[in-house]
Amino acid sequence: MFMNANLFEPGKSKSERSFIQSAVKQNTRFDGRKSNEFRDVKLTFGSDWGTVAVSMGDTKVLAQVSCDIGAPSSARANEGTLYLNVDIKGVAFLDEIQSTHDQRFLTLNSLLERTFRSSRCLDLESLCIAVEQHVWCVRVDINVLNHDGNLYDASTIAALAALMHFRRPEVSYAEEKIHTFSERERELMPLLFLHYPVSVTYCLYKSSSNPLVDPTLLEENAADSIIVLSFNSYQELCTLNAGGTAPTNVRTIMKCARSAANRSKALVQFIRKALELDAERRLQPNRVFGLADLLSDNAPLLSFKHLMAENVRQEVAQKKISDEPIPSTETVADEQLPADTKIEEAPMDETTWLSVEESTWIEQQMKNVQQSLAVSAQEAGKTSKSKPNRSKNKASKKPSIRNQDQSDSEEEVTQIL
Amino acid sequence: MNKTNTENDAKVKLREMHCKFNPLSRCDGSVMYSQGATVVIAAVLGPIEVKTQNLSIEGSYLECNYRPKAGLPQVKERIREAAIRDVLELALLSEAYPRAKMSLQVQELEDRGSIDACALNAACLAMLIGGLPLKYSFAAVHCIINEKGDFILDPEESETQHQKASFTFAFDSVDGDLLLVQTKGAFKIAQFNDIECICRQASVEIFDFYRSNIAKYHSKSEDQPLATIESARSELPMET
Amino acid sequence: MPGERVRVVEDAAKNKRVILGPGLRRLDDKVVASKAGPLRHKDPNTFWVDNYQRRYVPARGDLIIGIVKARVGDLYRVDIGSADTAAISYLAFEAATKKNRPDLNPGDLLYARVLNANADIEPELVCVNSNGKRGKLGVLQDGFFFKCSLNLARLLLRESCPALAALTDEMPFEIAVGVNGRIWVKAHSMRETVGLANAIMSLEQAGYAEIDKICGDLNSVMQT
């Protein structure tokens, strides 16, 4: 992904690379963001169920969910299927050569597969109509309209928002016959979720230890390695994809993971909120909805900054009433993170790990750590048992990527010990 | 015309048209075009490098792709693609860039009736904005005859449920010649002629729409600042 | 609009010879537009249609910025943003001989002049003028490079461009503008370069009236 010499792309010529490298060293970003600042995310829902257009800066992605009735696979006879299809050959990549194309397609597709399918975010059993005969096949089509970096986040947000927005018709099954109710007969049903995963992308450079979040195309192309982390709203890790040539240490990844977890939670909240607003709009009669809104100026803006600013205000108000919910979710994250670091074969106690980490952590979050420290100390044993299988799966996926990081992390581990 | 005006059910007005130029950053010209609730994006690229198998010495090779919103392109999409290519090949001044390729992609965003006509109109706008040389511009209009025998111009999706026949016409801007006729269903020749008249009148409206929007776009990029984008852009360096 | 007869030019052509620029063509004795945009006229007799364009079509004598793609025999292949890649010979550099070859690698930026341009053959570049001196041409080191529309590049290259004059009042910098819609800038510090590049890119949307404002913004950036 990184060494490909497609020189048409921004960020691929030598001077651009060295410029970005030194800009990163000086902590400057081209569009004036801070290294941990995100671009604004905007959602536009279509008039059909399950159509969502997401834009992050200049990156634009369209997701469309559709479903039909099909036969299940023989291995999982009681489950519906989820099929993800990424279409990047559309309007965004007219000028690209084939090899870059395939590579990009594969990375993106595998990321989405792992985020949504392998993490089993949909309750597939609820999509079963008759065991071994009829199940719902849900299909997500992702059309990339414009690529300005961070396709990963944009497509996961689009896919998640589209899945959450989607409604399927209800069916009844009797005497080997399926009757599908039309929208008038019975209300359409939303899909059932087990959790809501969203990814966050970081760029790493050899010249700097500071990762950049939400890279633009220029930054992404000049980057030495890219880390994609998917977290769900419960701040559990779903996917980790790290590649490239920049030496990374555990601490950087941990730092990324922490902020990614928070970001994912906020994103899911944002999607929920946008969906609520969309549902409200749908109740109003005689309005033209849909993607035509993209063209009109006075359409209601479902942007992340806009909605979350309201949210923060509400949250502050909530906090005053009860301090309960926020620390409790933090502990979930902290339980999960040590479990994640186990993959590195670090023979260590979670508590020591955390206390070291604490010193390098951002001041703002200090309090939360201390709170969670106590909890995670108690639950240290518990977490290692309840550690979900998927992190083990990941361990098998990762070694190839990790090889070069291994020495790095081991050094650090010895230092810590 | 007279006949349809007297009946209440007939509709001889186009739906509201909107367009936004260059929403995409990576191609030479792109346009997001909507007619009522039907929305498409068209993007052109060209002249660009051509594969040797498609190379032609006299003129440029035209590549045309239509992408549906969901699923892979099927036969229906291929037909639409071919229709767009046929019209474009007529309109494109291909001898201007020999040994090159012009590439056009149309992405459906939302189909709420008369998608064929929308795709063609978007393609024309994208060509105009991308600065590709054309012999003339073109406009396409869709019209149906419903079950009562009324003519409905530029129908909504709901109105096409019980259609007896549907027509898509494409006209050129200079002589008003017909570039494309697609018909489906049963109709009388007289009806066909009537509908062609209606569509021809509607195409004038579309050409006016092209002209006013392109004029607006050019004046905007030269003299008057685009208020929203400008303010957003000028904020950017502030934060560095 | 394409296909329309341009009467103004036809009238002018009755009295004298006229030069038809891009976007206009002759059909028998009619002058017909092939692009959409406002008609421009430059005395004494040049007419063309001005339109927003991002794709570069090479023309003889243009100054362009290219990226070296590969070396092929005696040539370097250079991407200049047009349909074909351009070629530049080893010998088209200052003081280059068969023994003393210039050291170019894929990814290098090149500021060059188009020597030869024709729709049917590959464009050819040079990095020297007719005296064999390199002048301002050659490899561009460091700095920052970005793409913009052709219109903006042409606007900046106009001799009386108020934008560049206003920007030079703010700070010293080096700039190379290729008519193929590529701009390279270099200022003293990273921050200045970034600010400068942003200022130039914002010109794309703004137009002349906004130049003062953009310069003001730039100024405030530098002070912070």
TrEMBL record, chain A:
PANTHER family: EXOSOME COMPLEX COMPONENT RRP45, EXOSOME COMPLEX EXONUCLEASE RIBOSOMAL RNA PROCESSING PROTEIN. Keywords: Cytoplasm, Nucleus, RNA-binding. One of its GO terms (biological process) is nuclear mRNA surveillance. Residues 384-400 have a biased composition (Basic residues). Belongs to the RNase PH family. This is Exosome complex component RRP45. It is found in: Cytoplasm; Nucleus. Residues 407-417 have a biased composition (Acidic residues).
Automatic annotation (TrEMBL), chain B:
Residues 14-133 form the Exoribonuclease phosphorolytic domain. One of its GO terms (biological process) is poly(A)-dependent snoRNA 3'-end processing. Pfam families: RNase_PH (PF01138). Keywords: Exosome, Nucleus, rRNA processing. SUPFAM superfamilies: Ribonuclease PH domain 2-like, Ribosomal protein S5 domain 2-like. InterPro entries: ExoRNase_PH_dom1, ExoRNase_PH_dom2_sf, PNPase/RNase_PH_dom_sf, Ribosomal_Su5_D2-typ_SF, RNase_PH. PANTHER family: EXOSOME COMPLEX COMPONENT, EXOSOME COMPLEX COMPONENT RRP46. It comes from Drosophila navojoa. The keyword Disulfide bond does not apply. GO terms for cellular component: cytoplasmic exosome (RNase complex); nuclear exosome (RNase complex); nucleolus. One of its GO terms (molecular function) is RNA binding. This is Exoribonuclease phosphorolytic domain-containing protein. It is found in: Nucleus. It comes from the Eukaryota. Belongs to the RNase PH family. Gene3D superfamilies: GHMP Kinase, N-terminal domain.
Automatic annotation (TrEMBL), chain C:
It comes from the Eukaryota. GO terms for molecular function: RNA binding. SUPFAM superfamilies: Eukaryotic type KH-domain (KH-domain type I), Nucleic acid-binding proteins, Ribosomal L27 protein-like. Residues 143-189 form the K Homology domain. Residues 18-55 form the Exosome complex exonuclease Rrp40 N-terminal domain. GO terms for cellular component: cytoplasmic exosome (RNase complex); nuclear exosome (RNase complex); nucleolus. InterPro entries: Exosome_RNA_bind1/RRP40/RRP4, KH_dom_type_1, KH_dom_type_1_sf, NA-bd_OB-fold, RRP40_KH-I, Rrp40_N_euk, Rrp40_S1. Signal peptide: none annotated. Its main location: cytoplasm. It is found in: Cytoplasm; Nucleus, Nucleolus. GO terms for biological process: CUT catabolic process; exonucleolytic trimming to generate mature 3'-end of 5.8S rRNA from tricistronic rRNA transcript (SSU-rRNA, 5.8S rRNA, LSU-rRNA); nuclear polyadenylation-dependent rRNA catabolic process; poly(A)-dependent snoRNA 3'-end processing; regulation of gene expression; TRAMP-dependent tRNA surveillance pathway; U4 snRNA 3'-end processing. Pfam families: KH_6, Rrp40_N, RRP40_S1. Keywords: Cytoplasm, Exosome, Nucleus, RNA-binding, rRNA processing. Belongs to the RRP40 family. PANTHER family: EXOSOME COMPLEX COMPONENT RRP40, PNAS-3 RELATED. This is Exosome complex component RRP40. It comes from Drosophila navojoa. The lineage of its organism: Eukaryota, Metazoa, Ecdysozoa, Arthropoda, Hexapoda.
